[in-house]
Hints:
By secondary structure, this protein is an alpha/beta fold. The protein is built from two helices and three strands, in the order E-H-E-H-E.
Amino acid sequence: MDISVIGAGGAIGRETVTQRVAGRVLKPTERLQLVGKRGGASERVLFGLRSDLTDAYAGVGYKPRKNTYEIFHLTP
């Protein structure tokens, strides 16, 4: 199952993403797509979140495939 979280850069979106990964809802072959606004703080938050998730959960033996955490931007 692939999951897309729209608004992943917001407080609720970040918590949703964190809970999905911490609860090991995703198998290493599945994708978690982080969706947010292009530009500004939202874009930076998504790249930081992706990096944090990759680092944090690699340390506990969760080894997702390279493109598990994808970032998509909504444009106005």
